[in-house]
């Protein structure tokens, strides 16, 4: 009895309200129509945006991990460093006496490479020598044996594809190697640290190491670290033939690459519980024989020196003649640097810090990575005092430091502070690089 009238009253009110809403639309049907069409169009655009967003999400899901994170990290580092570099160079242009006299020639050579400063500022000192090696004719006498030739020789075919621009080819190789290094680093860290979050921290710290901006420069750092990470990753996966093939090129990229066979052999020993004895040694030879390809890689370069220069040891002789490098005990060299002029002392303290982090973060399962990291510090120091100018660059090869930092930064607060500190340190060193104090870095 009560519900009927209420329902009827509600329906009447509804029809009355509909009539009252329709009458103004009748009086202004043109404006109302336009509003309806605008609302309809907006709804259509919103629906399309949602659909596109879902499509982009589906596409991103199809990209296998860790590529989305790795690519984002790579592009973020590239964008930030490029913007910072252009701002610093713009500000530096107004400084009287810039560049310093001893850097003026390099500055002029940078301008010859490219009129785009975001390209040219990635070339300094050794980069220019790599560029020269990538353009020297292969016929006729060859007298440039001071650098292993993998990096500049890779730029030759790529430069031809790029219309003869070997400078751009060198940068493309460095940046592609940097991207691949992040991927291999992420996959290796997943195996060693146990989860994807720790692996992400490792790749982030790899990008934030004090001189990690050199991964984007026309230098061998990114290629060497990429190949080193790849060899350790495949060693952990028991794929020793791949280890040997990649290690062959690793040894051709830098002289220290030959010695990476030692920590890789430790990975093999650990996988077989450090067993020794005649039968165990035969097993190691059967499985790990591809490690012999690492010394074969360096021997290939020595054979090239003999073929083109008549001297198996032309590399060592060129290093001694050109830069005064003589192999010696690295410990006195380090102590000499610590007690030397402020710039040398600062760089030597960086080496001490790297060694301290490696030793403090040592775990028995990661003995191979400790040995590798120590080699990446002591071998450059064995070059003698001339190494001080390039020590910060050579220390970048010690990627196990990032593994230790990733483990230490399990807590969010530690991660934030460590990330911020490393970013500031790298920013300061990058500014030094850009303001033509490059001999502080390279």
Notes on the structure:
This is Glycosyltransferase RgtA/B/C/D-like domain-containing protein. Keywords: Membrane, Transmembrane, Transmembrane helix. The chain crosses the membrane at residues 67-92, 158-184, 205-234, 240-269, 281-304, 345-362, 367-385, 391-409, 416-436. This protein is an all-alpha fold and 442 residues long. The chain contains 21 helices and no strands. Helix 16 packs across helix 17 and helix 17 packs across helix 20. Residues 1-28 have low confidence and may be disordered.
Strand content: under 5%
Estimate the mean pLDDT confidence: 87
Poorly predicted ranges = 1-28
Q: Shape from CA axes?
A: globular
Gap between N and C termini: 95 Å
Percent in helix:
over 70%
Radius of gyration from the CA trace? 30 Å
Report the biggest beta sheet as strand number plus sense, adding barrel if it closes: none
Question: How many individual helices?
Answer: 21
Element-level helix/strand string: HHHHHHHHHHHHHHHHHHHHH
Structural class: mainly alpha
Total strand segments: 0
Organism: Micromonospora trifolii
Keywords: Membrane, Transmembrane, Transmembrane helix
Protein name: Glycosyltransferase RgtA/B/C/D-like domain-containing protein
Keywords summarizing the entry:
single chain, 442 residues, mainly alpha, disordered N terminus, transmembrane, transmembrane helix, membrane, Glycosyltransferase RgtA/B/C/D-like domain-containing protein
Secondary structure: elements and pairs:
Elements: H1 3-27, H2 29-62, H3 67-92, H4 104-113, H5 117-120, H6 126-135, H7 150-161, H8 166-193, H9 196-208, H10 221-236, H11 240-253, H12 261-271, H13 278-288, H14 293-309, H15 314-323, H16 330-338, H17 342-360, H18 367-381, H19 391-394, H20 400-408, H21 412-434
Helix pairs in contact: 1-2, 3-8, 3-9, 6-7, 7-8, 8-9, 8-10, 9-20, 9-21, 10-11, 10-12, 11-14, 12-18, 16-17, 16-18, 17-18, 17-20
